Amino acid sequence: xxxxxxxxxxxxxxxxxxxxxxxxxxxxxxxxxxxxxxxxxxxxxxxxxxxxxxxxxxxxxxxxxxxxxxxxxxxxxxxxxxxxxxxxxxxxxxxxxxxxxxxxxxxxxxxxxxxxxxxxxxxxxxxxxxxxxxxxxxxxxxxxxxxxxxxxxxxxxxxxxxxxxxxxxxxxxxxxxxxxxxxxxxxxxxxxxxxxxxxxxxxxxxxxxxxxxxxxxxxxxxxxxxxxxxxxxxxxxxxxxxxxxxxxxxxxxxxxxxxxxxxxxxxxxxxxxxxxxxxxxxxxxxxxxxxxxxxxxxxxxxxxxxxxxxxxxxxxxxxxxxxxxxxxxxxxxxxxxxxxxxxxxxxxxxxxxxxxxxxxxxxxxxxxxxxxxxxxxxxxxxxxxxxxxxxxxxxxxxxxxxxxxxxxxxxxxxxxxxxxxxxxxxxxxx
Length: 430
What we know:
This protein is mostly helical. The chain contains 17 helices and four strands. Keywords: Membrane, Transmembrane, Transmembrane helix. GO terms for molecular function: oxidoreductase activity.
């Protein structure tokens, strides 16, 4: 038993070889890579978008979502039949019901998160060469999972224009030493860190659960974990919000109307059936889907080995490279989430390339990026816990900084660099 437990822990709670290699490269110098070289490595046919092919993927995904729903509507009758057919001694029909509902909630939540990723693709005009097709699909897909399409599209594009820029990025902005009211690094003691930021594992887990399941909606509602440059209670649902330009207001209103329409439809569904029915069929997988969405978006950028930049050292290329490709949940992430975590670096360089071409793009650009291509096969749950507990704060000064943990220690440090003026912008930044 002890041997089996050790094997289990070693398999699922370990740092990957790629992560260990980055840890050994403790002295960091920002990459100097030409955006032209990256673009030149990608065959031109991979930039082509097919409406028909994209609609096939959307249709396939929605068909699976519908199939899961149909399965769920038959769980109550199916559970009794399974107990009789397979003669499960000691297992009651109610126990079987719970098992089947748990299976439904898991797979439907995975599917809901996939619907969100397809809406994300529409937000980059990556599914069709026709903007109106992307807009119609995006509004429908994102509204179904209660995400304001145009509002989120606008701020997400801003994120791509300033990835891991401490002043310009839109979300997952790290707190600084000052935010925790810590003394300066040269005078801070172990007791300072223990008193001000060290947490018990139980409290860390509680915070993590809140962030995973509610964090995305709280970000949309009042900019939780968003850029602190915005006023308090900045919202994606407010047309006059500082997140948007004045010419965006009509689009924000359309997003709000779409969300209101979805809420009305859910209300009608509840009225015609019951709240418990809609809770089981829609809201539980919807809440659980947020856990997956936060997992892959958080792990794409939050890692102890990934740098954050301030004005002088940031370039578009460096921001794009301050991301991590992860094979999150293997084939599940590739099939249901359309590789959003598997090929995220390629996506940051080429946001308008459809997801089904990004695996080939990743292969094409890896030789150009070399050691600056960050890949991490660390098991997902452990990687999530590692980042949540080790990515605590950054220093308030310095052009290139890394996360420090609850003991005030960072895995890597900035060596200094020569400016790379040739990679400050990209034609694919949006």
